[in-house]
Structures are given as C-alpha cells and as structure tokens.
Amino acid sequence: MRKTSLAAGLIILVLVVGIVGYAVYPYIVSTKIDQLHDGATVYVYGKVTSSRFAFANISLFQVSDNTGSVYVAWDGALPATGAQVLIHGEVESILGATYIKADSVTVWYF
C-alpha cells in the first residue's frame, strides 16, 4: 500500500512539474520585442495580431507582446490571428524595418 502511494505521489509530482514547466517556458526564453536588435538569434513569445499572406511557402504575419510588435517571415503555415506563438529565428532589417526570419513557429496553448 505504501509503495503504491509513493508511486502515485511521484507521478503526480512529475505531471505538475511538467505542466508548470510548459506554462512558464515561453516567458523564460523569450526576448521582449522592444529589445530586438539586428543579427540576434531570439525566441519571441506573443500573439498573432495580423496575418498578411502566405505565398509560395512563405508566410508573413505580425506578432505583438506587451512591449511592441514585429513582423515574422517563415516558410511554414500561416498561424491563425489571435494564436499565442513561440517563435525562434534571426532578427533582420530591410530599409529600416525590423522583422524575424523564423526557423520555427510553435502555437502555444497556455
């Protein structure tokens, strides 16, 4: 009986730590949009505020956090407006406009 209770307790502990870790991960690794600088490789966590277009496997959309907004270009599916996403990529500038060339865009469900 005691071994069963210990095993159940450990399973619950692992689940709780996993869920909490999943929930806080984007906040731990994310760079605030107002702190982006050209050439940096970053993670950005934010909300998709506008989806511009997807053409020839290139998607362009805007992401915002509580410090600002930035455009994201990547070669995957266009995320839905309103989705919370975690983006990994390199910050680039063209004609004074800053954007993120994303390696990955992950919809985050917390």
Task: Characterise the protein shown here.
The chain has 110 residues and is an alpha+beta fold. The protein has one domain: Nucleic acid-binding proteins (OB fold (Dihydrolipoamide Acetyltransferase, E2P), Beta Barrel), CATH 2.40.50. Helices cover 25% and strands 47% of the residues. The protein has one helix and five strands. The longest helix has 28 residues. This is OB domain-containing protein.
Question: Which helices and strands, and how do they pair?
Answer:
Blueprint (H helix, E strand, L loop, with lengths): L1 H28 L11 E15 L2 E8 L2 E7 L9 E11 L2 E11 L3
Main pleated-sheet profile? 5 strands, mixed, barrel
Annotated CATH homologous superfamily: Nucleic acid-binding proteins
Helix content: 25-40%
Q: H/E element string?
A: HEEEEE
Q: Look at the structure and give the mean pLDDT.
A: 88
Total count of helical runs of at least 4 residues = 1
CATH class: Mainly Beta
Radius of gyration from CA coordinates: 18 Å
CATH topology (fold) name: OB fold (Dihydrolipoamide Acetyltransferase, E2P)
Task: Tell how many strands the DSSP assignment holds.
Answer: 5
Total domain units: 1
